[in-house]
Amino acid sequence: MKGYKTYLIIGSILVIFYLVAQYNKPTPTNWAPTYAVKDKIPYGTYILYHRIKDILPKANVKQSKTAIYNTLKDKNFNKTVYLIITQRAEISKTDFDQLVNYMKVGNDVFIASYDLGKIEKNLKLQAASAMSAEGSTLNFTNPNLKTEANYGFERGIGSQFYNKLDTNKATVLGVNGNGKPNFIRYSYGKGYLYLIAEPGFYTNFNLLNKYGAEYAAKTLSYLQGNTQVIFDEYFSQQENVTTDVLRVFFKHPELKFAYYLSIFSLIIFVLYDIKRRQRIIPIADPLTNSSLAFVNVVGSVYYNERNNLDLALKKINYFMEHLRSRYYLKTNDIDSEFAQLLMDKTGINETLSKTLTKHFIQTPTMGNLSDTQLINLNESIEQFYKITQSNGTRTV
């Protein structure tokens, strides 16, 4: 056992240093799109919830953590706004029927979401996402709200729009730089249904920007005159339910360090209990070339699951590793300046450089990815390899 004493001491010191470093390290920014009113992270809605009275000064604001049907059933609302801001609003037919009855008597519904679920078919509505090197620009159709220069947004906010809608029923209130509608309104009796294809406009990240806050305020100005706001938390809390068995330990710092201490104690116990034993040497099987079979299995899994977003993120990660190892590029923080650096380092043209950078910024923030968008990403990456191979390897 004397031979292990030195290793135990060194190992204990290293573990202690690690725990101290973990305790004192700064908390990284959480970019998770929660859209929850309690979250002060970039993609929470803490600011909107606490400052919405700046736009609707006479309105009383309250939260709702129950389903739409349960919130509205058998209740008499008057001049009330039902506000839903979430990544995916899976509104059932029963819930939508309740919303229609709610609007007909003079109430409004405002939904900012990438996906409206089954009601998109009822509204004859279809959303899409624009990925271009020029960025996302938006404006209003109302002359009183329209600005001379379009609004521009960062981190892919504003890229979503409606590429299919029933123009006989929907009124277009806002469009992107290509004239595609992203903000529309439906009339139901005395009330209105407002739909905007992007929840990111109302996050803390966007509202801390002067022009982002101005755009969000103008969209919500259509709700003026209402005396109550029901701020929906049902859909946002559905998105953030975690099933991690250790979530309780990591939620509380005391339990978290108790967990680490238990692991550390277990490691010491195992090291002390180690005995030198001669294990049976297993017979090594001859090596077989299973690469082709492995490729077929992996390809079948991705084809059957049809998870385009997951496949796109893996392709981007693999491509980032290529840029780091071959061109010594730092890929920790991708921004608009990265396109120029990529062009200088690799020798590709400006259009391809901006297109790739746009993919890197927007794809991780998207809720889903169509086949066409995945193909465009793949073609851009393949074009990069083709150009760099024809120009010769550059390692600047």
TrEMBL record:
Residues 39-219 form the DUF4350 domain. InterPro entries: DUF4350 (IPR025646). Keywords: Membrane, Transmembrane, Transmembrane helix. The keyword Membrane applies. Pfam families: DUF4350 (PF14258). The chain crosses the membrane at residues 7-24, 257-274. This is DUF4350 domain-containing protein. It comes from Pedobacter vanadiisoli.
